Amino acid sequence: MSKGLFITLEGSEGAGKSTQIEVISNYLKGKGRKVICVREPGGTPIAEDIRALLKNPREDDSMCDTTELLLMYAARAQLVNSFIKPKLQEGFDIICDRHDLSTVAYQGGGRGMDMNHINAVRQIVLGNFRPDLTFLLDIDPEEGMKRARQRGKLDRFEQSKIDFFIRVRNTYIECAKEDPEHIVLIDGSLPLDKVSANVIACLEKLDV
Ligand code: T5A
Known about the structure:
Blueprint: E1 6-10, H1 17-30, E2 35-39, H2 45-55, H3 65-89, E3 93-97, H4 100-110, H5 115-126, E4 133-138, H6 141-149, H7 162-178, E5 183-187, H8 192-206
Parallel strand pairs: 1-3, 1-4, 2-3, 4-5
Helix pairs in contact: 1-8, 2-3, 3-5, 4-7
The protein binds P1-(5'-adenosyl)P5-(5'-thymidyl)pentaphosphate.
P1-(5'-adenosyl)P5-(5'-thymidyl)pentaphosphate binds near residues 14, 18, 19 and 103.
Keywords: ATP-binding, Kinase, Nucleotide biosynthesis, Nucleotide-binding, Transferase
GO molecular function: ATP binding; dTMP kinase activity
InterPro entries: P-loop_NTPase (IPR027417), Thymidylate_kin-like_dom (IPR039430), Thymidylate_kin_CS (IPR018095), Thymidylate_kinase (IPR018094)
């Protein structure tokens, strides 16, 4: 059985990733493909427990950057090894709401952690495993946070200052410039139907 496609969605808060995942999933299913959607951090019972630790702000302790980085990779190790890799081998396409590029943007760009350390942990967790294609939905952080706020209570990341999200966005854009073959930059500020049309136009080029 042929290996499935591994597609990831990236972008800062409120960029529209969850919305576009449905568009991609419907497109691929329309082509007769088997599709599974997952999210990071999370996607398995253990990884979802780690997600709760990462997202919930708490008053009795504040998470240090190294803990955050290692928890992100612990959740990723669990999801990739116990779920994503076996499912790809079974021929499923996997669409993942965030993956390793989030760590580069948030922990590397946003938190300013040493990229050599991040690269070292990635090597342990992922080796050479990479997505086939990444959609980067780009939006002005103020605009994205407006959308996120409409959902109500803000999580630990969403409570960050706007400067943090500006660094995240800039890092994402740099990465897309460095690897245009694998990272497609999409303007997430456009009306929903335009964003979806741009995503589908890109999928059509994949010829699946
Ligand atoms: N994180 C994660 C790290 O720091 N490092 C890592 O390695 C990883 C994996 C995860 C947090 O963890 C951090 C990053 C995150 O802060 P999360 O809840 O998964 O937390 O957060 P997000 O992925 O940011 O989820 P959001 O829901 O905030 O963003 P989405 O999925 O991009 O946005 P979406 O699709 O839910 O849309 C938000 C709202 O905007 C509307 C939608 O209808 C919705 O109401 N919308 C549009 N409105 C107008 N025009 C458009 N084009 C629109 N598209 C969507």
